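User: Predict the complex.
Assistant: Input components as received:
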Amino acid sequence: MREIKELLVQKINELLDNGTVDRVAGWKAGEFCYDAAPAVFTKENIDELLYNGFCGANQSKFLVNAATTENRILALLKPCDTYSYNQLVKEHRVDPSRVYALGIPCTGMVDVNKIKALGITGITGIEEDGENLKIATIYGDASCKKCDVLLERCMVCKGKNHVAGDEMLIPDEEAPETPSCADRMAEVARLEAMTEEERFNFWREQLSKCIRCNACRNACPACTCRTCVFDNAKSGLAAKVNNTDFEENMFHIIRAFHVAGRCTDCGECSRVCPQNIPLHLLNRKFIKDINEFYGEFQAGADTTTKGPLTSFTKEDCEPSIVMERGE
Amino acid sequence: MLKIAVNEINRLFDAIAAVENLYLPVEKGGEVEFGAYSADAKVRLDALQTVKSAKDMFFPFSENLMKFHVEGKQISVEAAEKVNEEFVVFGVRACDARSFSILDKVFLADPVDTYYAARREHGVVVSMACSRPEETCFCSAFGIDATKPEGDVVTWVADGVLYWEAQTEKGAALTEKVAEVLAESDSAAVEAQQAAVKAIMEKLPLAGLDLSYFTSRPELEIFKRPEWTELSSHCLGCGTCTFVCPTCQCYDVRDFDNGHGIERYRCWDSCMYRDFTMMAHGTNRKTQVERFRQRFMHKLVYNPKNRDGEFGCVGCGRCLKKCPVNMNIVKVAKTLSAGGEQA
C-alpha cells in the first residue's frame, strides 16, 4: 500500500501541476488510525492525502455536486467505485468532462465496526500482517483475520478491474489480487429458503431499528433525486420518523425498488447505517431476481447498455412468471 | 454500598420490574438500545453504549401528542396520556446521565414541556460506571467522572459483582423496594476499579480536548471562520449525528393521517435537514455549510454562552463512531481551535 500511496501522490502532483485538474477528491487522516474522512485537496494541502485500508467511502456521489465547475476535479476511484461512477454518468448525474477519473488499486477496505464487534475496543493502532491484522489497544494487543473484518462489499469484491477511468494509476493486470471471502448471494439464498414468517420476522427485527436518519439514502449513488419524495412536503409522504410498522418496512423496500436495476451493489447503504441494518440484502435480492429473469446484468458495467428494467425485449420473461415468483 | 452477583442479576431486574417499569440496554437485531425488560430480553450491560442515547427514555424519538377523530362533521380531539407511572432506566452511562441536566435546562425552563417533565418526574435513573472506555470517549473534557456517574442510583460492575449505591431520595426509595435482593458490601472492589479506569481515562487519545477557544473568542469571529466550508464539504445532510446525540433537543410536530383520523406527534428533528425550521418565506439556512455550522455553533458557542459555560456535548463519542463521512465535533473543535490560535 505504501508504494501505491507514493505513486499516487506523484501522479496527483503531476495532474495538479500540468493543470489537468485543480483539486482532488480523496481521503484525509483523522483522529484515529482507522479514520479516513473523504476530503477535497488542492496543491496547498495535498500532503495530507491518505490512502490506506480504511478508505472505504465511495466518492462517486460526491461528484454530483462537486463536478460542476469549469476546472476538472480529480476523482480517485477504486475498482468498485467505477461502477457507481459509470451509472451516474449514464444517468447524466455526473458530467465526465468535468472529472478526471483516476483508477486506483484496492486490496479490500476494513470495517472498524466489525473489529469492535469482536470485542476489540480502545483501538490505538492497526497494522496489516499478511492475512491478519495486528491491533494495538489501550487494553493490550489483539489480532484478527482481515477477511473477517472487511466491509461487506469487499467480502464479495467485484475484482481488481476498473470499468471506467481516464487513466489507471497502475494497469489492472499488474494490480494486486483482491480478496474474496464470501459468496455474494449466500445470504439472499438463506433468506429465500426461510418460511414467510421467518423472513418477515427477520426483516421486522432489522427494519424496526431504523431511525430514519436518511444516511442510506443520502450516501446512495443511485439516490440522486434533487428532492426526495420522502422530503417533499407536497407528496404527503414526507416524514422524519416511521409512523407505523408499515412505514418502517416500506421506506426501505420502496427505496430498494427505486434503485432496482440501477444499484451497482456498492454497499454504501449498509456501510453508513448507524443501526447496521443489512440494507444491501434488499438490493441483492433484486439483483438476483433480475439476473434470473433477464440474464446476468451488472449495473454500471458501462455507460451505454440499457438496463433490463428500462428496456423491453421479446426475450424478457413473461410478467406472469415474475408474479408467480412473488407469491 | 450494596451488591449482587452478576450471575444472579435477573433477581434484581425481576425485583425492579415487579414494582416499576424497567428499561435497560437490550440487544435487538444485533444492536443495543434501551428497551423494556422481559424474561427473554437479551440484556447487554457489557455494551459501552446504546445506538440512540438514553435521552430516548425522556424525550423519545417519536411520541403522540393528540388524536383527532373525524365522524361526518364531528371532530373530536383526544389528548395523549402523559406518563404517570414510575419507571426505571437502568445502565445509563456517565455521559448520558449528564445529558439529562443539559436537556432539563431546555425542557424544564419556562414554558415547561409537560411531556418531558412527566417523564423526568416519574423516571428513576440507575447509572452504571464505565469499566472499559473506548478511544472515542472524551467525557472528561466536560468534567464528567465516568467512574461515578450522576443518577438516582449509581452502579458498578467489577469482578462479576454489581455494586449499588443510592445518590438521591428517589434512588433511596427504589433501593428500599429492592433491598431484599441486595446484600451489604464494602467498597474496596469499586475503589480499585475506579482507580484503574481513571488511569485509562487519562491515556485516552482525546482526554485533553481543549475547548477554551469557543468560550474565549467573540461569537461572530467563530461564526465567520472560513474553515466551516471545508469542514462541511462532505456532509451528507443526514440526521445520524443529531439522532445519536444525547444532547440534541430539536423536534418537529407533524400530523399523520392514519386513514380514520389524524395523529399529531412530535419527533426528533435535525438541523442537518433542508427543511429544518422551514418558514413561510423559506429557510434561513440555504446551504449545508450553514446547517453544519449551526449544529456546532449551538453546541460549542451558543450553549456555553447562554447556559453558564455548559457545552452542548457530553463527550459520548457516538458521532465519532457513526458519521458516514467521519466528520464530528472533535474535528470541528480541533480545526477551529488550531486556526484560532494563529488568528
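Chain A has a mean pLDDT of 94.
Let me know if you want any component modeled separately.
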